[in-house]
Write a structure and sequence with these properties.
homodimer, mainly alpha, Annexin V, domain 1, 4 domains
C-alpha cells in the first residue's frame, strides 16, 4: 500500500504548474546570471536581513509550496503537470527545479517528480557509473519491480541513454557480479501464482548442494534465482527451509566479508520479502554514523507510491519506533518535510 | 520487404471465416467421430472412385480454398478471421485446421495462421524440448526479430506457457550454449543507428584476443554479442575485419565439428546479415538429402511478412536459381502450393 496522500480534490494541472512557476519567481535568484547574482549580494549589503525580500520564511514558503504540490500528486498527475508546465513556460519543470533547489532536498524532489520508469532508468544508469555498492541499486530495481515495470525501465533507458540497460550493466561489472546482475536486469519473470512443487523440491536440492560446496556463484544458483517466477523462487526456498532445517540466507552467511554473498542474500530477500529488504535498507541508512541520504531518498521516492505503508509497518515492528520519528530525528529542513510528506505524515 | 501478397480488395473477415468453415464442411471427414469415419469407408466400397464425393480435385479444392484465403491475409487480418470464426462457430480456427489438415501442409498453415509473436513463442517452446540442433531456432528468434517483437514473444510465452522464455531456455540448456542463449533471448537491444567508434575498436580487439586464444565462449565475447545494439555489433565486426585482415567468422572456422562454434557463427550472421543467414538455411534445407521441411516451413512462414523478398534476391544470387523453382522442385501438392503462395508466387 502506498503512503502517498493525494487530496480528494486536486487542482487542474495548469493551476499546479502556475503555482510552481510562482514559487520559482518569488525567488530573487531565479535568473541565475552572474549579474543578478552580484546584484543580490550588493542588495544584501544595503538591506536589513529582516527585509521581506530575504526573509527566511519567504524562502521557506517557496519550498513549502513546492512540497505541498508535488509531494501530493501521483505519477500520472506529476506527468501532466510537467507537460502543462513545458507548454506554458517553454521550460522543463525538472530543469527549473534543478536550478532552484539544492542538495538532499533537490535530489528528493527531482527523483520524486520523475516518472517511475524514468526514475529507475536514471538510478540504474547512475549505479552503473559508481562503485560496487551501487550493484545493490541494480539488484533492487531488477528484483522489486514487477516484470512489466522492469520492462518499462528498459524502454525508458533506451529513450534516455541511447543504450540498453543490460549493455551498461554488463560493461560496468565483472566476474560473479556480472553473472548475477545481467540476467537479473534482463529478466521478464512470469508473474502467475502457479507453483511447480516437484521442481521446487529438485531445485531446493540443487541450491543446497551448491551452497554446501561453497559454490555460491554456480550457474545453477544464478539460473534459479534469475529466471524463475517469484512465486516459484519462494516455493523453492520454503522447501529448502523444510528439507534442510535452515533458511537459505542463514546458510549464505558463512563468510562475513564476501560482498558477492551479501548481494546474493539481498537478492533473495528482495525477491521474497521486499518490505523486509526495504526496512533493513532504511534502518541501516538512518542508523549508521551520518545518515546515508542517497539510500534514504531512493527508498522513500521509489516506494511512496507502491508499498511504503507495508514498509513502515515492518519498520515499526523491527525498531520499536516509527519511521516518521526516525526520519524526523535524523534529517532537517525542507528535506525532512519532503520525506515526511511522501511517507504520508500529515494531511495532503 | 515482405513477399506476402494481399489482394487490393479483401473480403470482410466474416466472409473469410464462412469460406473457411465451408472448406471444412465440404470434407466428409469433418466430423471426426469413428462412426463417420466408418461410414466414409463403407461409402467408399460402394461408390466409384471417380465419384465427385471423393474426387481428388474436390479434396484439393478445399485445401486450395484455405490457401487462397489464409496465404493472402496479413497478420492483423488473420487475427480478425480467427476472432470472427470463434464467435460464429464457437471453435478455434486453429483447432479446426489441425483436425482437417495433415503433415507438412498442416504445419505450414498452422504456423502461418498464428500471430507472429504467438508463432515465435510456439517455435521457441518446441525448441526447448528438442535436441541441440533446435538451439538454432532459439538463436534465430532472438537475433532476427526487432527488440520490441522479441519482447512480444516473451509476453506471448507467459500467456501460453505460464512460464518465461528465458526460464525454459536456461532450464533446458547447459554450459556454453546456456551462456550464449539465455542472454540472447533476454536481450532488449537498443535499436538506434548511433555507433560508438572508440568502443567498436576496443571491443574488436577484445574479440580478436579471445578468439586467438581459442576462448570462444569467453564471457566478453558473449557480452559483446548479446548486449550491444546491432548497429554497434556491426561496427565492431567491421573494425575487426579492417584491423585483423579477416572477417570474424573466418577466424571462427578453425574447428569443423564444434557445435558451439557453429552456433556462434550463425549468431553473428543472423545479427549482421539476416537475409544471408536465412538464404543459407533455405539452401541447406532444400539441398540436403531429403528436404528439411521443419526449417523450410519455419523460414517461409516467419519471413513471408518481413523480408522474404530480400531473402529471395540473396537466394537467387547465391544459387543461380530462384527460390520458387527450388521449392517447386523439392516439395509437392498443397504444401508446395502453400509455400509458393507465401513467397509471393502467383497472384493474390
Amino acid at each position: 500500500m502506498a503512503s502517498l496522500k493525494v487530496p480528494a480534490s486536486v487542482p487542474p494541472p495548469y493551476e499546479d504548474a502556475e503555482q510552481l512557476h510562482k514559487a520559482f519567481e518569488g525567488d530573487p535568484l531565479h535568473d541565475e546570471s552572474i549579474l543578478s547574482f552580484r546584484y543580490f549580494f550588493l542588495l544584501r549589503l544595503f538591506v536589513d536581513s529582516s527585509d521581506v525580500l530575504f526573509d527566511a520564511d519567504r524562502w521557506g514558503t517557496n519550498e513549502g509550496l513546492i512540497i505541498s504540490i508535488l509531494a501530493h500528486r501521483n505519477a500520472a498527475q506529476r506527468n501532466l503537470i510537467r507537460k502543462v508546465y513545458a507548454e506554458a513556460y517553454g521550460q522543463d519543470l525538472l530543469k527549473d527545479l534543478d536550478k532552484e533547489l539544492s542538495s538532499d532536498f533537490e535530489r528528493a524532489v527531482l527523483l520524486w517528480t520523475l516518472d517511475p520508469a524514468e526514475r529507475d532508468a536514471y538510478l540504474a544508469n547512475e549505479a552503473t557509473k559508481r562503485f560496487s555498492s551501487s550493484n545493490w541499486v541494480l539488484m533492487e530495481i531488477a528484483c522489486s519491480r514487477s516484470s512489466h515495470d522492469l520492462f518499462k525501465v528498459r524502454q525508458a533507458y533506451h529513450a534516455r541513454y541511447k543504450k540498453s540497460l543490460e549493455e551498461d550493466v554488463a560493461y560496468h561489472t565483472t566476474g560473479d557480479f556480472r553473472k548475477l546482475l545481467v540476467p537479473l536486469v534482463s529478466a521478464f519473470r512470469y508473474e502467475g501464482e502457479e507453483v511447480n512443487t516437484i521442481l521446487a523440491k529438485s531445485e531446493a536440492k540443487i541450491l543446497h548442494e551448491k551452497i554446501s560446496a561453497k559454490a555460491y556463484s554456480d550457474e545453477e544458483i544464478i539460473r534459479i534465482l534469475t529466471t524463475r517466477s517469484k512465486a516459484q523462487v519462494n516455493a523453492t526456498l520454503n522447501h529448502y527451509n523444510n528439507a534442510f532445517g535452515n533458511a537459505i540466507n542463514k546458510n549464505l552467511k558463512e563468510e562475513a566479508d564476501n560482498d558477492f554473498l551479501k548481494l546474493l542474500r539481498a537478492t533473495i530477500k528482495c525477491l521474497t520479502y521486499p518490505e523486509k529488504y526495504f526496512e533493513k535498507l532504511l534502518r541501516l541508512s538512518i542508523k549508521k554514523l551520518g545518515t546515508d541520504e542517497r539510500a534514504l531518498t531512493r527508498v522513500v521516492t521509489t516506494r511512496a507510491e507502491v508499498d511504503m505503508e507495508r514498509i513502515k509497518e515492518e519498520y515499526h515492528r523491527r525498531n520499536s519506533v516509527t519511521l516518521d520519528r526516525d526520519i524526523a530525528g535524523d534529517t532537517s529542513g525542507d528535506y525532512e518535510r519532503m520525506l515526511l510528506a511522501l511517507i504520508g505524515h500529515g494531511d495532503a
